[in-house]
Amino acid sequence: MKKRLSLKVLGPLILFTLIPGVIFTGLAEWLTEGLLIDHFLQRAIALGQHINQEFYDRYFNPWYAVEKEAFNPLDPKHLKELDELIHDNMRHFQVERVNFFSPTGQVIYSTEKGLVGMDASVIPQVRQALRGQVTSKVVYGFRPDRLHGKAGTLLNHDVIEIYLPMLCLNEKLPNHGQQVGVLELYQNINVVRQWLTKIRLYMGGVLSLILVVSIVGASSSLHLAALKPIRQMVDTITAPDIVVDGKLMKRIDGGSTYELRGLADSFNRMVEDVIEKTRQLNEAKEMAMVDELTSLYNHRYFHRRLEEELSRAARAQTEVSLIFCDLDGFKGLNDSKGHQAGDLGLKEISRILQGSKRVSDVACRYGGDEFALILPGATSDAAKILAERLRARVEDRFQGNPDEWGEGLTLSIGIASYPKDAPEKKTLIERADWAMYYAKRNGKNWVKVFDLSEFVNLPFVDSQGREERLESMRALVGALRGEDGYLQRHSETVASQAAAVARQMGMDPLEVDRVLVAGLLHDIGVIVLPDQIMSKAEKLTEEEMDQVKQHPVVAVNLLDSVEGFKEVLPIILHHHEQYAGGGYPQGLAHQQIPMGARILAVVDAYYAMRSARPFRRAFTREEVIEELRRCSGTQFDPDVVENFIQWLSMTEKTESEEEAEKEVVGG
After folding, report:
1. Measured between alpha carbons, how far is 342 from 336 in angstroms, rounded to an integer?
2. Is 467 in contact with 443 (CB distance < 8 Å)?
């Protein structure tokens, strides 16, 4: 019993003597390390600024001449002069290496000659410095250097890697004050480790002395005080919900002591629970970015990544090309071989996309049978080469095998580039999309690069141009109800979504344009309805409903005399017809109803139900989808319903939907 009691006393005593000592030692090391590293960092920055002042304006500007010749680091005569000047500075500051990087991340000078010409643009610190940030990193001990290891160099001591933006300081040059590259310095800091070793030895001796004194003088009187806090720790840590983060992957062994074993078991359960929840969270994040069928990035990720790449290109003044691909013959494959064959075709297309792109390119599934490639740093010419390779591989894979793929699949591809073809994201997408449908309309299985001179000659466009005309239509719709912006928002949302569904269903680009215009103008007839009907909170009377049902006829009468709207009028007139008959104004059914009107009916109904009314709340997305499926085959065309729901599954909520969920009109 006495021996067991001694172990219970000595264990806590040693533990609670060492813990504060280790913490204090670590704190002392941390403070010392921070002060010394900061000292060396400031010295290195001072050296970098000195080198910048003395050499940058002379050696890193393409317009400057040394002995009437442009500076060339590969020229032995120029290199020798630069080496002498650099090494004179390095000796005074204990700097081991100096590297210069061009604005694109290439090594254009190095005290290690094997590095000249290497690409360092993938190193995060180099990328940050190219954006004007001073970065540094402490490297301890023996390891291969990320960049210099490629030249056979190994680090065997402690250094600070410092990356400084280089500025042109020659006032006579046109790019004076601008960043012309990056300077990298390796500052030897072995003295830091020497100081840390001394601190450890000193503190180790102090801790040993304290431990001996504590064991001799207080072992018998401290055992209860030592065991009590351990039991409190066990009681506290038994509830794993208090832990908010954890990365421990190895179980803790508590040994033979009951208290420590309980502490270890509780902590292990807590860590395992946190790791499992972290794994589930990471899986959920991954699923939110990736299309489940093709394993490509999804529509939501496409828009986010394109914004990032365009912002990066704007800062670096580089190009970004966008490739849009539409599958030719996909509907025929689904009809002849079934949807399972269609899914296999989509998976095979995604595999070809992944195998054809560069590592830096981003492949996404944009819609049902539409794909997109974001090409950072690529010109339209480079994008066309990749697109032609992609088109040819798809043709080779799917043509000539009717038993497996029917008539086969091909790609119609459109290309647009930033900033040459478009100054921002929305226009870039529209113009790549236009080029894709131009290729599809003109024979399919073709790569089309956007051409502004052809763009203004689109079908359904007058001399004003397509964008100007659509903008005029939006302004007209917005003026109908005065200050009430609901009609304008609703019309624009319905128009854009109906056009997207029309494209997904393989309609001709000219028909897609007509659906878009019809969507913008489909409610123009409400201009004749009295305000008391539009704002009435109760159910409309039969007489009032008869007035409402006249709004498609009124719209057609208003637009009939406007040049260019003849092909759009049937879509507007019949967008309230029902698929099985019984709608208005003419009670048409099935194929008697124009396809554009059938699409408009589904999309219009969806956003009408998603919006709040004075007499009811806004329905949720799930509730409306359920209602559309319930009315499929009676009120709505089943094929349109399924295509629209598929499109919704790949898109985020629209601004109109989000507003509908936040407020209830008159509620």
Report:
1. 10
2. no
Mean pLDDT of 123-134: 87
What six digits make up the tokens of 71? 């500076």
Picking from 326, 280, 274, the residue whose alpha carbon sits closest to that of residue 432 is 326
Q: Which residues are catalytic?
A: 369
Distances (CA, A) of 542 to 114, 548, 586: 87, 10, 18
**pLDDT average, residue stretch 546-564:** 78
Give the DSSP per-residue string, 76-145.
Answer: HHHHHHHHHHHHHHHHHHTEEEEEEE-TTSBEEEESSGGGTT-B-TTSHHHHHHHTT--EEEEE-SEEE-
DSSP tag of 374: E
DSSP character for 632?
B
Reported as a single tens digit per residue, the pLDDT across 207-248 is 677 666 666 655 555 444 444 434 434 544 554 444 444 444
Tokens of 474: 């939006």
* Cα 36 from Cα 190, distance rounded (Å): 11
Contact (Cβ atoms closer than 8 angstroms) between residue 254 and residue 263: yes
Nearest of 11, 13, 3 to residue 261 by alpha carbon: 11
Pick the closest to residue 107 from 159, 182, 175 (CA basis): 182
Q: Is 166 helix (H, G, I), strand (E, B) or coil?
A: strand
Cα separation, 539 vs 666, in Å, equals 14
Tens-digit pLDDT profile for residues 280-335: 555 555 556 888 889 899 988 999 999 999 999 999 999 999 999 999 988 888 88
Could you give the angle at which helices 466-480 and 486-504 cross, rounded to 10 degrees? 140
- In which residue are the tokens 């131009």 written? 438
Q: From 424, 291, 486, 441, select the one nearest 369 (Cα to Cα).
A: 291
3-class DSSP state of 297: strand
The answer to whether 555 and 525 are in contact (CB under 8 A) is yes
Structure tokens at 447: 């790569």
CB 305 within 8 A of CB 362: yes
H or E stretch including 410?
A: strand 410-418
Q: What does pLDDT average to over the chain? A: 75
364: nearest Cα among 374, 352, 379: 374
Please tell me whether the peptide bond between 423 and the residue prior to it is cis, using omega within 30 degrees of 0: no
Q: Compute the distance between CA of residue 324 and CA of residue 588 in angstroms, rounded to an integer.
A: 37
370-376, strands of its sheet edge to edge: 362-365, 370-376, 320-328, 410-418, 447-449
- For residues 372 and 416, the answer to whether their CB atoms sit within 8 Å is no
Q: Is the model more confident about 118 or about 283?
A: 118
Give kind and range of the element (H or E) at residue 482. none
Provide mean pLDDT across the span 610-618.
Answer: 75
Place of tokens 């694109």: 104
pLDDT digits (tens, 9 = 90+) for 54-70: 665 556 555 444 444 55
Confidence class for position 31, pLDDT limits 50, 70, 90: confident
Q: Which two tokens stand for residue 660?
A: 């509908």
The burial of 425, by beta-carbon neighbours within 10 Å (0-12 exposed, 13-18 middle, 19 or more buried), is given as middle
Cα 135-136-138 angle, rounded to 5 deg:
160
